[in-house]
Amino acid sequence: MNIRGKLIVGNLVIVIIMALASYLSLDSVRRLRELFNTVHSETVPSIEALENLRFSGLRIVSSVSEFGLIHSQEQGSRPGEKTSAKEQSVEEKLLIKEGITGYDEALIEYASITNTTCEEDAGHLAPITAKGALLKARGLRITELTQAGVKGKRILDAKEDFEAAEKDFLAAINSAIAHHRADLADRKQKVEAEAADAIGEIALFGLLGVGVALLIGFILSHDISSRLLHLKEAAVRIEGGDLRPRLNTEAKDELGQLTRTFNSMGESLFKATSRLNGVLQNMADLLAVTDSEGAVLLVNRQFVETLGYAPEEIYKKNAAVLFHGKEIPLPAEGRPPEFVGNAETLLLAKDGRLIPALVSTSGLTDEDGKFQGFIAVMRDISSRKETERRMAQAEKIAVVGQLATGIAHEINNPIGIILGFAQSIVKRTEENDPLAAPLRTIEREARRCKEFVQGVLNFSRSSTDELRKEVAVNFSVESAMPLILAQCKARGIELVLKLADGLKPVNLYPSVIQQAIINLCSNAMDAMPDGGTLTISTFAREVDGRPHAAVQISDTGHGMTKEVQSRMFEPFFTTKPVGKGTGLGLLITSEGVRRHDGHIEVDSSPGHGSAFTIFLPTARKPPGGE
What we know:
Elements: H1 3-76, H2 79-115, H3 119-122, H4 125-147, H5 153-240, H6 254-281, E1 286-291, E2 296-299, H7 301-307, H8 311-314, E3 323-324, E4 340-348, E5 354-365, E6 371-380, H9 382-428, H10 436-460, E7 469-471, H11 473-491, E8 493-498, E9 506-508, H12 510-526, E10 532-543, E11 546-555, H13 562-567, H14 585-595, E12 599-604, E13 610-617
Parallel strand pairs: 8-10
Antiparallel strand pairs: 1-2, 1-6, 3-4, 4-5, 5-6, 7-9, 10-11, 11-13, 12-13
Helix pairs in contact: 1-2, 1-4, 1-5, 2-4, 4-5, 5-6, 9-10, 11-12, 12-14
């Protein structure tokens, strides 16, 4: 139905409701009149009948009293007066009979009335009938006793019984009259209440008619105005970015047609925008769009995942907060930027991480060519940088391997000669000879140097002549203790051992792991030039579901920064003064641990010391094979 049809129907409904209100008002007046008639017909006749019945009863009482008085006068009169008194006695006796007849008629009238009214009214009939019958019987009894000339106590008792019957009768009559009058008062109150209700209903129906007319007018106007308001609000939402207003389109009138057209327009715009947004959100590169002052307006999903900023956190912030260190590849304020392609820079993530990236920027202009902002497309090149770093490190390791092979071959021969002569002299030296201990030290250290050179050779090639053995890590730690303990005493460092019992053996190259422990302890002692505590502990730990034996070397030295930790395993990288370190110790250590399918974890911070933990998988195979 169109809007014009709704207005016509609304006016017809108003007319019908006003007519109905008039009808209901007339009906209220009719009901009030019927109620008044009912009250009058049911209550007033009962009261009048009771008044008549009481009068008849009193008439009986009066006649009996008069009869007794006259009979007394007859007994004490002279012969000439007895005839007159006797005549009066006969008249009074007739009056008694007439009173009884009148009473019976009045009782029949009251009985007929009570039979047509409620049961409560009929409940008064029985006691009145009984009391009236008793009154008549005792009245007749006195009349008979009086005529018989009975005197004395017997006549006095009859009179007392008659007086009691009179009181009971009048009490029953008065009770019934009081009841009916109370009922009349109650019904009058109900009539008055009904009258007030009727007046209220008439007023209510009048007001209801007016109210309904106003309501229908309000509903029609509200329907039209609210739907127009919804259209306005939908237009505002579309302007704000909500392209699917979802207005109700059930109406078939002119506004319904307009609403359906509006929804269709919004849906088409939403689909077009969704396709564009899908392209932007699924880009592999980071995207940021700003206004002319550099405030961020839009970012894509890759931007959020890479830098950690939620869209609402970065919204309206200046894009300069995204860049670190180098020159920011953004346009100068107040003028459109020229296209910048693949400028290398560092992005600053929310958690402080620096992410190398290539940035390309271009300006945004409106249809008049006015600068509106710029688009920045950023590509995370962390993986590429990591690959380049690994390639550079691999080249360094290859160079180290070549140098180590040559140096090891040059050193191996002299060390072999020294070790041979030392072993020969030790065999010829007596146990109590003062030179026996120094010579054994020379032999042991020469052997260690030879093993170290062998470790360098092992690092530079994939095979080794040493066989793996099932060895407890505690044994490897204890084997390195003489040299470590001597250095700790010399440097004033406290050595603490915390070796766990019952650790499973590890299938390893004993000298390689021993050398790794010595290298890490040496670095720990170098980090405590003013003394401190060196703690060596062993324990069991599961890594990726497989049992491992762990050796932890911790110190109370100066610790390392994150930057140093990121480069500490690079070849030739060292923080020690020139001549104090080669930058190869940690490299050789990590390579040796890696050959055992193990790994090293580092926990360090400036001023809080360092802890290096070697994790080695426990043995699965019998010793003798790699």
